[in-house]
Every structure is written in C-alpha cells, then in structure tokens.
Write a structure and sequence with these properties.
Helix 2 crosses helix 11 and helix 4 packs across helix 11. The chain has 615 residues and is α+β, with helices and mostly antiparallel strands. It contains 13 helices and 18 strands.
C-alpha cells in the first residue's frame, strides 16, 4: 500500500515558511534600498519625493541579495519552531521521513531560485535603468547643488572638464528648445585639465545660459544606440577663451556635450537576452562602439588617402572634395607623401635631430612637375570659380580618436557638433598662394568695385597662407566602414595590416585596442550570466541548509541555529562575487571559484542531512 503524502503538514510548513520569508524580505529590501538612496540624496541629485521613488525602484534589485538570506532565515525559524514544539518528533513517530519533512523547503527553494533567476535576468535590469534615469534626469538638481555648495561641476564622462559659477538660477522648462530645465549662471568659469592635472584651456564669462535636454543618442550611420542621455548646451555671453597663453574674445558660443546614463556602459544593467545579443553586436556598449568608430575612421582615412593618390595618378591628375558648405573643391597636383617626423638624436654625445618615421596624419602635396604650381579650384554658390595657385601644400587629417570621441566642451564654433559624422574630414593648407576668380568657363574675372569705391571682388594677389578645412571626398569611404559591425572591422583591419606595412603600427594599435575591449566585454558578459545562475542556485541551497540545520540543532536558540547557516551562506555569496570579478579579469578560469561556494554549501547541506537521518 502506497503511503499518502502528508499534504496537511506540508501546507502547515509552507504557510509558516513563506510568511517568514516574505516578512524578512520586506524588511531587508527596505533597509538596503534606503542605504542605496543615501548617497544620491546627500549629493543633491535627488529631492525628498524623488528619494522615495528611488527607494521603491531599488527594492526589486535588492531582492537579488536579500531574498537568499531572507529565505535561509525563514527556513531556519520555521523548521526550528517545528522541532521546538515537538511537531517534527510527532511526524517521525507517524512514519513521515526526513525527506518528506524537508520537501516543503526543497519545493520553496526551487520556486525561489527560479523566481530569482527571472528577476535577475529580466526584471531587475529594467528597475536599475529606471533608477539610473531618475538620477541622470535630475542632473539639474545636481548642478544647482554643486554650484551653491561652491564645488565644481564635472562636464562629460572623462572627468577632465569642470564648470564653476558664482550663482545659479533655475528658470524651469523651455518649450522652444525642448529643454526640461533652463539655468542661468553668473560668474562662469570653464576649465579643461590635461592628463597631469594642469589647466590646459579655460574660458570665463560674465553670465551664461544652460539648457538640459533629454535625447536618445543613436548614431545616424548604424543601428546601435547609446541609449537615453542628457544633452547639456552652454551658451556663455562675452566669453574670454584662453589656451596656451593666447587670449581671444568670443561673443557667444554653444558648447553641447552628453551625459550618459550610468547603465549605458555596464552589462549588469542588461537583460539576459541583451547580454546574449552583445556577443554578436558588442558595439551596443558605448565604450566599445567608440573604439569601433575609431578603427573605422582609421581604415577610412587610409582608404581616402589611397583614393586621392589614385585620382592624382590618372590622366586628369585631379581629386574632387566637398567642403562643409557643400561647395566643390578640386585639387590639381601630382602626388602626396606622408611627412617624416624629426626626432631628437642623442647619439655621439651631441644633441640633434634625425629623420624619424612617417606621420600618417600629415601629407605633403607635390605638383605634377617640378616648378609647376599646385592648383586648387573652389566653386562658390554663385557659380564663380575661385582659383588658388600655391608653391607648396599640406593635407592634414585629424586623429581618428578625436573624431570618434565626443566633441570638446571648450572652443569656438556655433551649434552642436556631433562625433558621429561619417566622413573623413581633411584640412588643406596652401603656402605662398596667388588667388584669382574665374567664371564658369574658366575666364579670369576683373575686379568689381561698388559705388563707394570698395572692392566686391578683389584682384589677383599673393597671400602667404590659405587654409581650407573640413574637406571630404565626394565618395567618402567612411560611410560604408562606419556602418560595419565590430567583427567585420576587425577582419578588415587584419587583412589591411598584412598588406600595408607602412600603415601597420597605426592600424594594429586601433585594432588591438578594440579587440582588447571586446574580449573584456565578453568576459564580463560571461561573468554576469554565471553570477546570476550561481546566486539562484545559492538561494535554493541556502533554504535547504537553513531547514537542515534547524532540524539538526533542535536544542539551540533560533539565532544560534541561523548563524550556523548564515556564515557558510555569507561565504558563498563572497566567493560568487570574487569569482565574478576573477572571471571578468581572467575568463573561464574564474568559474571554479565562482561556483566553489555553491558547491561547498551544497556539500555541507548533504553532510548535515546525512547526520540528521543517521541520528
């Protein structure tokens, strides 16, 4: 005859067990959520009402750590009361086995483990994002708090640019610009530091207006998105800009920069599906995407230089550019060569210079034949062709890292500059230039003088230097390369560095930097996935160890019994955290440590259960 399961006893144990688990979890998450909200509140990032919202949003994420210990504590108290009231003894006398008695704890542990796995993989990341957005969207309160406290406001994420102001006034939302907050600053000072912490550049102004606007910083060239950000636009009035001991008056400047939410570069804020997607598209992480763009721009610059060389080698000996205004610029020359750097030579006991490696960002332009000029023709909006003939010229390219990174806070210019420009921007500098204007047929135009005697169009003349900036090829290679994924770019870099020895160092440097960050990201993804699994498994084991120790130590006080389960459980959580960091740093070599605590705690539970059954 098959013995019926003790459903009544199981329901009795489950009621007591889950009542204690829920009560303990509620107390723990409330305390931990308040502790998490203390720092943003003290820093002025949150007000009283927002602090309560922050605490409510923090409660589900805190369950990842509170739930295992609450489950262990609830199981300990529930089963200790069962033994203290001799209910466990009566159950044994009635023929109920130890395995049947501990079955409610096993079932509860499985449910809690599955619940915690779902929470950590799907629910908790969403709440963490909302917590981060709540803090970042209240950046205006942080700015006001810092200024009123006489402290610097960091600008951007590189921690090298700071804002100081004597006073600040909140003016509320600005519907015209779409800003959720508009600030007025008095006595403004913007400072940028170099890597040694010295002032590299600064700008001061009597007053300034600041707009804060929520944007979704998605790149225009690809489907990747950096996620929600806060755009900060600063417009100083009557500013004085200083750099390298040179001063210049600037009437008004608009200096935009983005403050990313903290979750944009941390995989712990991503769901399990998003973590798996990172393996195919690591550029979803902003830090990796910036380096991907840097490698793409590096490759694009070399392709652009090759295209220029090919255009100059054919019969026409000309290359067409487009400037920032969309005007056509034609360069007529023979070839371009990378300049060699002059390096100090200390050999032989005397200082001097010698020819060093080639600078792949500066190219000297040579005429088709010696003695002939270098010709640049620019077609203006009215159809007039402005022609410059130079004795020498140089073509310069910006550093790919400066194109991929965010635009600087300090400096001239009007209007937001975006780092996501998918084009190779070049500067053409002409030396000893003779300029003249021609019509559409190439005929020289005479000077034009208005009624007052002023020249509208000047006669041909000689100038020492002429610079054309922000030039790009008509068919720019960056548009295709910037849209490629991370792994496609790495393959293209591998192929190109094998073919072009002169470009090898530059490409290898950008490629290895990107590959290193991708590998680091993949290790972090692995560590986060395994950490979530281990914490869920630990929750199951901690419930069983709490119930087993309560049945084993029936004559001890409840707190003493819990301590026998608490300290091994605490050691398990510590090994999981240490293993996660080791896995992030070393890869799969850290997984044994990550799972060692769970295995040890499970082994301890099995040993204690065997002792319980034996005695």
């Amino acid at each position: 005859m098959t013995r019926r399961p003790p459903l009544t006893l199981w329901l009795h144990i489950l009621w007591d067990l889950w009542r204690l688990i829920l009560l303990t979890s509620a107390v723990l998450v409330t305390v931990i959520a308040f502790a998490a909200a203390v720092k943003p509140l003290a820093d002025g990032k949150l007000g009283p009402v927002d602090t309560l919202r922050f605490m409510l949003l923090a409660m589900p994420p805190m369950l990842q750590y509170a739930l295992p210990f609450a489950a262990c504590f609830g199981a300990t108290l529930a089963y200790h009361r069962l033994t203290a009231d001799n209910e466990a003894t009566a159950a044994y006398a009635g023929g109920i086995s130890h395995r049947s008695l501990i079955f409610p704890a096993l079932a509860s542990g499985v449910v809690l483990a599955m619940l915690l796995l779902v929470l950590s993989n799907r629910v908790i990341p969403a709440f963490l994002r909302q917590m981060s957005e709540l803090v970042s969207q209240d950046i205006s309160k942080f700015i006001v708090h810092q200024i009123k406290s006489g402290e610097a406001v960091p600008l951007g994420s590189d921690k090298r640019r700071f804002l100081f102001a004597d006073e600040v006034v909140e003016q509320g939302a600005d519907a015209e610009t779409g800003a959720f907050q508009k600030l007025w600053l008095g006595g403004l000072l913007l400072v940028k530091l170099d890597k040694q912490g010295e002032v590299e550049e600064q700008a001061s102004a009597r007053e300034a207006t600041v707009w804060l606007r929520r944007v979704n910083a998605a790149t225009e060239e690809s489907e990747t998105s950096a996620g929600p950000m806060t755009e900060v636009v600063i417009r100083p009035r009557d500013a004085v800009f200083q750099r390298n001991d040179k001063r210049g008056e600037v009437g008004q400047t608009i200096q935009p920069f983005l403050i990313p939410n903290s979750f944009t570069d941390d995989p712990k804020y991503l769901t399990d599906a998003e973590l798996r997607a990172l393996k195919d598209k690591p550029e979803r992480i902003q830090d990796v995407d910036r380096r991907r763009r840097e490698l793409a721009m590096t490759l694009a610059q070399f392709e652009a230089i090759e295209a220029i060389r090919e255009s100059l080698r054919d019969a026409s000996a000309r290359v067409e550019f487009v400037d920032a205004l969309g005007q056509r610029v034609v360069l007529k020359a023979g070839e371009i060569r990378a300049r060699r750097l002059d390096v100090e030579d200390q050999t032989g006991g005397s200082a001097g210079t010698r020819r060093g490696p080639r600078d792949m960002s500066r190219y000297q332009v040579f005429p088709r034949q010696r003695g002939q000029p270098i010709v640049v023709e620019r077609t203006l909006g009215d159809g007039t062709i402005q022609s410059q003939r130079a004795n020498s010229a140089e073509l310069r390219l910006p550093k790919p890292s400066s194109v991929a990174a965010a635009s600087p806070v300090l400096g001239g210019g009007a209007g937001p500059q975006r780092a996501s420009r998918a084009r190779v921007s070049m500067t053409l500098q002409l030396m000893e230039v003779s300029a003249q204007d021609m019509d559409e047929n190439g005929e020289l135009l005479a000077p034009v003088i208005d009624d007052s005697g002023a020249e509208i169009r000047a006669a041909p003349g000689i100038i020492s230097e002429w610079t054309l900036s922000e030039l790009s090829l008509v068919r720019d290679p960056a548009e295709d390369l910037i849209a490629d994924g991370t792994y496609a770019l790495l393959s293209a870099a591998d192929e190109r560095q094998r073919e072009r020895a002169v470009e090898r160092d530059v490409i290898v440097r950008a490629r290895d930097d990107l590959r290193r960050h991708v590998d680091d990201l993949m290790r972090e993804v692995l560590s986060k996935q395994q950490e979530r699994l281990a914490m869920s498994a630990a929750c199951l084991v901690m419930v069983l160890i709490g119930a087993t120790m309560a049945l084993r130590l029936r004559d001890s006080l409840p707190l003493a019994v819990y301590l026998w389960a608490f300290f091994p459980a605490l050691a398990t959580v510590i090994t999981i955290s240490a293993g996660q960091r080791m896995t992030h740093g070393s890869g799969a070599a850290g997984l044994p440590l990550l799972w060692a605590g769970v295995a040890a705690l499970g082994t301890l539970g099995v040993v204690e259960f065997v002792k319980l059954v034996r005695h």
